[in-house]
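Please check this.
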Amino acid sequence: MKKLSAVLLVFSLLISAFLAVPVAEAQSKFKDVTDKHWAVKEIEFLSGKKVIQGYPDGTFKPNDNLTRMQIALMVSREKNYNLTDRSDPKLKDINKGQTNYNVVSAVMAEGIFKDVVNNNQFKPNAYVTRAEMASIMARAYNLTGGSSYQFKDVTSKHWAYSYVQAVATNQITIGYNDGTFKPDNLLTRSQFSAMMARILDKSFRSPSKINRETVINSMVSNYEYAKLSNTSASFNAWNPGSIHSYQVLMDLQNPSNMVFTIKAWSDPSVPNSDRIPTSVNKALQMMIPSGASTIYGIVNSVAKTGSSSDLNKDYSFDGYSVKVKFNGSAILIYFTN
């Protein structure tokens, strides 16, 4: 069996034509949300469920920032909270008899604004940030979990760290291409619509896209160089202090199938721990966090010995069917979802 050679890691994303499913165009009932708007399907989905509403002039104002009162109204509407006989939250700026007092008392009693309201002031017209959104939605919908990906600007010391991790893990929202979450950015009505739709209907979530983007973010944020275009991402990375470099080419379409093709060092002077480029492990943690150590162990075994008793076995992790193969010159990891 040939030894693995070269210093190259190539990610090739394969799309099978027979897996493509045509989706009907969503027709918007709001005059400022065209059929080509990125969140038109989510907006129409929530409008159909009467979770969100437009304005009297027939607009939705998708780019307007969202206020605390608007989120309170939409979440209480979707959750069908009981709006009567709630205890008085004793807020300084919302009193009995005021418009939507019953809604505010309900969301306060449910605890979903616990991290947002301070000094007994609800501030109904205050705009909501992405961090506050993560807290509200995680509390309202019991979202939990930790992601293997860490955002640069939301460390474990950030007040919303656990909530940001929860919405990222559950594929409700993701970060930006620079590896940040931008927790203090204000939330727009269209962004909220997309997040709410993903919570209520998993078909709006896109695991492949999210995994792919978090892989890119992870690589870019770890001393590695990347060039991005509309159709591809080209990485030319160098690990400081080690002797190997590699390039990654990643197609940015939305695949149903993925294949990682890995070529490792064959030079016996290279320690076994360095034979597989480190980004393999990072990529596996992004793709299949619950199975990363298992698959990485198989890859390492093949890199060291040229074989493994676990080759060609079928595994299932995090929504993917996974299989590892070896063709004599490269290790192939197949992901199907």
Observations:
- DSSP finds nine helices and eight strands in the chain.
- The longest helix spans residues 207-220.
- Residues 1-25, 208-216, 218-256 have pLDDT under 50 and may be disordered.
- The radius of gyration is 24 Å.
